[in-house]
Design a protein that fits this description.
Keywords: Leucine-rich repeat, Membrane, Receptor, Repeat, Signal, Transmembrane, Transmembrane helix. It holds the Pfam family LRR_8. It is found in: Membrane. This is Protein kinase domain-containing protein. The strands form four sheets. A seven-stranded mixed sheet has the order 1-2-3-4-6-8-9, with no helix packed on it. The protein has a six-stranded antiparallel sheet with strand order 10-14-15-13-12-11. It has 17 helices and 17 strands. The N and C termini lie far apart (about 90 Å). It has helices at about 1-30, 35-45, 95, 165-170, 210-260, 300, 340-350, 385-390, 400-420, 475-495, 495-500, 505-515, 525-530, 530-545, 555-575, 580-585, 590-595, and strands spanning about 70, 80, 105, 130, 140, 155, 160, 180, 190-195, 285-290, 305-310, 315-320, 325-335, 360-365, 370-375, 435-440, 445. With about 600 residues, the chain is an alpha/beta fold. It is about 40% helix and about 10% strand. It has two domains: about 30-200, Ribonuclease Inhibitor (Leucine-rich repeat, LRR (right-handed beta-alpha superhelix), Alpha-Beta Horseshoe); about 290-595, Transferase(Phosphotransferase), domain 1, CATH 1.10.510.10.
């Protein structure tokens, strides 16, 4: 009882000591990252040009795509703000900006931002890049900028700063790797790039002046007051903690004794150690399939700037740029139904698939909660973006390129199944235009191989693109053949399944039945490759047969496509040596219809 009273007395002392601080915290409160971001935006964009309003209900800015906002890989923290040439006409609220604790890059160049650079900008301690050039900023260039010890690049040129700048600013700014400062006076009108040096090894020159000495004395007096108070509060807290722990132990002992007295016939309760559940201290490392010089650390990946490109209930796709400027595509997978060992075994098998038409897996990371798959980023985009650009009239998509892409995809899939037969078959399971990437030569690269079989079949993420999914809805070679047949139909017809949702096999089969086969082809195909498009149409229709037993294997599909390619090449050689025009050498549609209708495969008859 006496111990309880002492504990309450000490608790009261603590409350009295820290009450003013607590009251201030309750009134002001600590802003969350979301609140800080939106408050900064409302200040710098006073005219709401960006149309980013906030009523307290919006989710974290990293949970959806905001132009110019960069987040880390886990989409939990903002690491970059690039709002250049946006006609922003507000002010810089550094108080809220610096609440973004992971912020490293800020660029607000070429706007109409007014006012001063606040001295509180010094609280943005992680900034490495700051560009405020070409605005309407005025006043003195603040010395606070020199306190950003991680800052490597600073550009505040083309503003309306005061004609003079403190000498110590000019002395300390030389420690940035790159800086561009311009005022209305020619005194500091220069742009300079200095040799990079470590701030840890080279300290800025000390400055001795009257005002700084006065400031130091002021802080010295404050600290002489704060230190004893802090020590006293710490001592009180320590005593209270020890007394509270002792009182709690006594109370537990009394409860156990009382339980023993009330139940003498029962065995004494077992005392069990309760171990705190902590998150994984040691994270799984990256497993690489590339040369040593191309490797990096997991922390490099997690701390890199990441752009969210797409997101589903089961996965997210990021474009990630490392500090060395290397760019990767990172697939983050969740809700996989697979053990760690099975996933690792499958990824190692996928990582060893080396083929010109398969996007190589750079590395992977696996934990119980999520998996990360890392690929080289392909700047040419996907086959879907190419076909859409053609449909919108933004670029050409000639017949030869279509034929080359179809051949490359077939070769990649055939290699997957030939290689898999040596071990355990790993079907793709999610083949579609957006998963066919294009390298710098516009050769096709099959991406996202191997993990579809681990997705929960009850979730919509597995069969989100129903237009490519075989009727039996299984992850198998027959299912991949069906999906390839749909892709082949898209190349021939110029229609996209992913965006339109059209049942393309059904539409094409209906056109064939009505003997309108010639109307199936896209104008580019009809113009340049009509003669060889019919055999390819026959291949595609065999691939999309309703019964999996009626579909050919990928080896058979590749053989037929190569026959078309060889025939097309022979025709080109003949035309180059012939005086006849290409139009005279192309038969009419009526002569080619039999190529689609005639059954010339050794496999069972397809159900058209």
């Amino acid at each position: 009882m006496r111990g309880s009273k002492l504990f309450l007395f000490l608790e009261g002392l603590i409350c009295i000591a820290i009450l003013p601080r607590l009251f201030t915290g309750c009134v002001g409160g600590e802003l969350s990252e979301s609140e800080s971001f939106f408050k900064f935006i409302s200040a710098v964009d006073s005219q709401n040009v960006l149309r980013i309003g906030w009523n307290g209900n919006l989710p974290h800015p990293c949970s959806y795509n905001l132009k110019g906002i960069k987040c880390n890989l886990h989409a939990t923290n903002i690491v970059g703000i690039r709002l250049e040439n946006m006609n922003l006409s507000g002010i810089i609220d550094a108080e809220t900006l610096c609440k973004l604790r992971h912020l490293r890059v800020v660029s607000l160049a070429r706007n109409l931002i007014q006012g001063r650079i606040p001295t509180s900008i010094s609280n943005c301690r992680r900034l490495t890049y700051l560009n405020l050039s070409s605005n309407l900023l005025s006043g003195a260039v603040p010395l606070a900028l020199t306190k950003l010890k991680h800052l490597k690049t600073l550009d505040i040129s083309n503003n309306h700063f005061a004609a003079t700048s403190p000498d110590n600013f000019r002395q300390e700014i030389k420690y940035f790797d790159k800086y561009v400062v311009e005022t209305s006076s020619s005194e500091i009108n220069r742009a300079s790039t200095v040799e990079a040096r470590g701030l840890e090894d080279t300290q800025p020159p000390s400055v001795h002046n009257k005002s700084e000495h006065g400031e130091k004395r002021h802080w010295f007096r404050n600290w002489m007051t704060i230190i004893p108070l802090a020590a006293g509060i710490g001592l009180v807290v320590l005593i209270a903690y020890c007394m509270g722990k002792k009182s709690a132990q006594i109370a537990r002992d009394r409860e156990i004794l009382k339980a023993l007295q009330d139940s003498p016939s029962k065995s004494p309760p077992q005392v069990m150690d309760i171990e705190e559940v902590r998150p994984e201290v040691r994270r799984s490392e990256l497993v690489f399939f590339v040369n040593e010089k191309e490797r990096f650390k997991l922390d490099d990946l997690l701390e890199a700037t990441a752009d969210l490109r797409s997101q589903t209930i089961c996965s997210s796709l990021f474009m990630v740029r490392l500090k060395n400027s290397a760019v990767y595509a990172v697939k983050r997978l969740k809700k996989l139904q697979v053990s760690m060992d099975e996933f690792s075994q499958t990824m190692r098998q996928i990582g060893n698939l080396k083929h010109p038409n398969i996007l190589p897996l750079v590395c992977y990371n696996s934990t119980n909660e999520e998996k990360l798959l890392v690929y080289k980023y392909q700047s040419n985009g996907s086959l879907l973006s190419l076909l859409e650009a053609y449909i919108e009239g933004k670029r050409d998509f000639p017949w030869k390129l279509r034929l080359s892409i179809a051949t490359g995809i077939a070769k990649g899939l055939d290699f997957m199944y030939q290689k898999s037969n040596e071990e355990k078959t790993i079907p793709h399971g999610n083949l579609k235009l957006s998963n066919i990437l294009l390298n710098e030569n516009e050769d096709p690269l099959i991406s996202e191989c191997g993990y579809s079989k681990f997705l929960d079949p009850k979730k919509t993420c597995l069969f989100s693109s129903n237009g490519y999914t075989a009727p039996e809805k299984t992850v198998s070679e027959q299912g991949d053949v069906f999906s390839f047949g749909v892709i082949l139909l898209e190349l021939l017809t110029g229609k996209t399944v992913e965006k339109t949702g059209i049942d393309l096999p059904k539409w094409v089969k209906a056109m064939v039945r009505e003997e309108w086969t010639g109307e199936v082809f896209d104008k580019e195909v009809a113009k340049a490759g009509r003669q060889w498009a019919f055999p390819l149409l026959n291949v595609a229709l065999k691939c999309v047969s309703n019964s999996p037993d009626d579909r050919p294997t990928m080896a058979e599909v590749l053989e037929r496509i190569e026959e078309v390619v060889n025939g097309n090449d022979e025709r080109d050689r003949d035309h180059s040596n012939s005086s006849f025009s290409s139009m005279e050498s192309i038969p009419h549609d009526s002569c080619l219809l039999h190529t689609v209708i005639q059954e010339n495969w050794d496999t069972p008859r397809s159900s058209y």
